[in-house]
Design goal:
By secondary structure, this protein is of the alpha/beta class. Helices cover 47% and strands 18% of the residues. α2 runs antiparallel to α9 and α5 packs across α10 (284-303).
Length: 318
């Protein structure tokens, strides 16, 4: 109750004469693709609300260090972007986009997102927030210092993974998954605490992985999503015109970012290659082995899933 009173007081202090000012916590740095998208979103909201809604984007998780779902739920911050697989503890549906090889292309990833969107929104509401938009990362691949040609080559890998699914995947493939905050990954690679990473071309570019790793295998493990949400108390403090403006901006930036991510992937891969990373695709043997692991993981995931989630996959397979 005390936190609720603080939240409502904070809202009252920023909603003056119909004008609303809010802070948006962006998880990654200012040059990151998703952070840039959040900045463009804030500009569109300003434009469509005719200046009555102002959103200030704070890059690098400067406002939220812990669980973004909880931070928005409690009103610690009005808005945030969040890497959805990180928040899978908040709802099983949040793990969908990081299941291995369910989506194997951007078109697949978009289809899966469209089918999952209502479930994401429903879960977000349970956490006192409104789901505004979400965009995929470039496909996750495997960075390492040795070529990976079969699951036998996973032996000796100490791999930084980004959620429970990716950790299970690495462990089942023969490697050892290591949980680390993103900010500690580069130094961990330097010291040998980890010697491989499951992440995207964009993240490898931002992390300058060519300084510490030699190979990037485009296994296209998954197309995980980054979402933007707003605290429901803040949302309800706005009038219908302002809410409509925010939804219009969200729809527009989502479409633009889903289109742009393909080029971001190409540009990132080109820069990785330019700086000495050997970029390759998995051979048939490796892909077959990984597909088998992925199939078992999906069966396990769906075993205790709700009807809503099972229906998503039934529709997706059609």
């Amino acid at each position: 109750m005390f936190k609720k009173i603080i939240t409502l007081a904070a809202i009252a202090s920023i909603a003056v004469a119909g004008n609303v000012k809010m802070d948006l916590n962006a998880k990654y740095g200012a040059t990151n693709f998703h952070t840039k998208g959040a900045v463009e979103f804030s500009k569109l909201v300003d434009k469509y609300s005719k200046g009555t809604v102002k959103i200030k984007v704070h890059a690098g998780s400067s406002l939220v260090k812990g669980n973004p779902l909880k931070a928005v739920k409690d009103g610690t911050v009005a808005m945030t972007d969040m890497f959805i697989p990180f928040t899978a503890g908040g709802g099983k549906v949040f793990g969908i986009s990081a299941l291995p090889f369910v989506a194997t292309s951007y078109d697949d990833a978009f289809k899966l997102y469209q089918l999952s969107k209502k479930a994401y929104a429903k879960t977000a509401k349970k956490w006192n927030q409104k789901f505004l938009y979400s965009v995929t990362w470039p496909a996750s691949g495997l960075y390492s210092n040795k070529p990976i040609n079969s699951t036998k080559d996973f032996k000796g890998l100490k791999t930084r993974t980004y959620d429970k699914n990716s950790a299970n995947f690495i462990n089942k493939s023969g490697g050892d998954a290591v949980a680390l905050p993103w900010g500690e990954v580069y130094s961990a690679l330097r010291t040998g605490m980890v010697n491989s990473v499951v992440t995207s071309s964009e993240s490898g570019k931002n992390g300058k992985f060519w300084e510490v790793l030699k190979n990037f295998n485009k296994i296209q493990y998954a197309y995980p999503l980054q979402a933007v949400t707003i605290n429901l108390d803040y949302w309800n403090s706005m009038d219908k015109t302002q809410q409509k403006a925010m939804l219009k901006a969200a729809s527009e930036i989502e479409a633009a970012q889903w289109k742009a991510v393909r080029q971001v992937d190409k540009d990132s891969l080109a820069l990785l290659t330019k700086n000495g990373i050997k970029v390759s695709a998995p051979n048939a043997k490796l892909q077959k082995e990984l597909n088998s692991i992925a199939k078992d993981m999906l069966s396990g995931y769906l075993k205790d899933a709700s009807k809503d989630i099972k229906d998503i996959f039934k529709k997706y397979k059609k």
